Amino acid sequence: MSDLRELYQEVILDHSRRPQNFRKLATANRRAEGYNPLCGDQITIYVELDDKNDIVRDVGFEGSGCASSKAAGSMMTASLKGRTKAETQELFQQVHAMLMGSSSGADTEKLGKLMVLAGVREFPSRVKCATLCWHALAAALKRDAVQISTE
Amino acid sequence: MSSALSTANLKGWRRSGMAFDPDDVRKDFPILGQRVHGKPLVYLDNAATTQKPQAVLDALNYYYRAGNANVHRGIHLLSERATTQYEGARAKVKHFINASHNDEIIFVRGTTEAINLVAQTYGRKSVKAGDEIVISTMEHHSNIVPWQILCEESGAMLRVIPINDAGELVIDEYKKILTERTRIVAITHVSNALGTINPVKEMAELAHQWGAVVVVDGAQAVPHMAVDVKELACDFYAFSGHKLFGPTGVGVLYGRAALLEAMPPYQTGGSMINSVSFERTTYSAPPQKFEAGTPNIAGVIGLGAAIDYVSEIGMEAISRYEHELLMHATEALSAIKEVRIIGDARKKACLISFVLAGVHPHDVGTILDHEGVATRSGHHCAMPLMARLGLPATVRASLAFYNTKEEAEALARAVLRALEVFR
What we know:
The complex is a heterodimer.
Chain A: H1 2-7, H2 10-17, E1 30-36, E2 41-50, E3 55-64, H3 67-78, H4 85-100, H5 108-111, H6 127-140, E4 148-149
Parallel strand pairs in A: 1-4
Antiparallel strand pairs in A: 1-2, 2-3
Helix pairs in contact in A: 2-3, 3-6, 4-6
Chain B: H1 7-15, H2 22-25, E1 35-36, E2 39-40, E3 42-43, H3 54-67, H4 77-97, E4 105-108, H5 111-126, E5 132-136, H6 145-154, E6 157-161, H7 171-177, E7 182-188, H8 200-209, E8 213-217, H9 229-232, E9 236-240, E10 251-255, H10 257-262, E11 273-276, E12 281-283, H11 297-313, H12 315-334, E13 339-342, E14 351-356, H13 361-370, E15 373-374, E16 376-378, H14 383-389, E17 394-398, H15 405-421
Parallel strand pairs in B: 3-15, 5-6, 5-7, 7-8, 8-9
Antiparallel strand pairs in B: 1-2, 4-10, 9-10, 11-12, 13-14, 14-17, 16-17
């Protein structure tokens, strides 16, 4: 049961019950949808990007999904404000490394609070739930943002 | 119903077709005895695939150990033996669904291929621009997409029978949809997402009044009830071996003989020809016309063994028991106020779709799994149905005759556990 508690830690449940930045962003100039056809999770990411300096000013998300996907969206959006585009990409790589348990390992310092999601690694069928928001974010930061999917 | 009955008694008792002891039949399924996450496995994902009895495993093993040879061609003992077993399985299927001739039974990979076969042979030949194909809101994607493609290719139109809030087809609306333009009615016998049993016989009779051909997706019906294609009056009936306690990669398309004879071939190549020259090729008669290439011989033989197995227990006895089981499971789940059961058709197979207030179906699925209970969460390959229900996903517990009332109660306990984790 210990790994189940790892997946559903209190902080994850809190984020999923009261997700931060769970709103459509009026000031957004980037938008992308993420969709997981296997489970039906659907997410829309809104980004206000300072184009001149390539800095994420604000970010929000909407959609339906499980606790992991909502908590991941909440924690991701909370960790992005003020970061440069390059920094968000670096962070995505770290999250990816953490969730896939890659041998090179994830930089726990860089991940900070996001480390709480590491328990998802033990649930291969649920890793996509936690990365869907990041895939959508990556798509939103591309100039020709279109609907993306984790498949 | 005592599990203390001796095996010798049980043999005769099973054949009586009266009743059976689920605790006893479970012993025939080696996989069911294991533990997962430290808990006894409660396998309630039978609509996805069923487990295999020892008799099927033995048939596969024996075939590869002692009987392996190609069918329909070798002039040697093993080939003749394999052919006899392969064609013997065809006769078993014919008898099982009460077809008129062995030649009406075509072996395919599964229900999906069976429906695609009909769409691409019968459909391509007979559906023209302006015609209509009728399906329903509760179809699995495999009974939607082949018809959509056929409509795109032919210029025909797809018409959809609506459902009511109980998850039943609205037959009055179906009657209005049928016209002289209707060429094909393709409906599921039992909904894989709701468990609804559709009135296929009545619907087929209505379709025939307009000269339409009726294709039935029987994937979720054959494991739960006696199916008689003559009684149902359908023209095509499709099902999968692996959902009927047989191997994966094998399925059946039943087609009325006259229709099969007039249909162009599906895949082409070896086994399905009479003669080939560079000028002209003539095709074999059905079923060979539709079975190009070396078939899934072991799979077909395994399916034959599965049919023998369930026939010995008796499909009527299975239906009766599963109805009791459904009532018991429904009652156990309904006692939890956070549970909302999706689909309460008057006639239902042993399947319960539900959602849990405050817990996403995927989280429910993961927690149930940790309690040893295997279910499925998602849209069940029926996205238009989910859109109609206004739900992104449901949890689906699909039971089989080897499931017990105790397992239904274990499901309810695991659901309570999910609520506890999310409290």
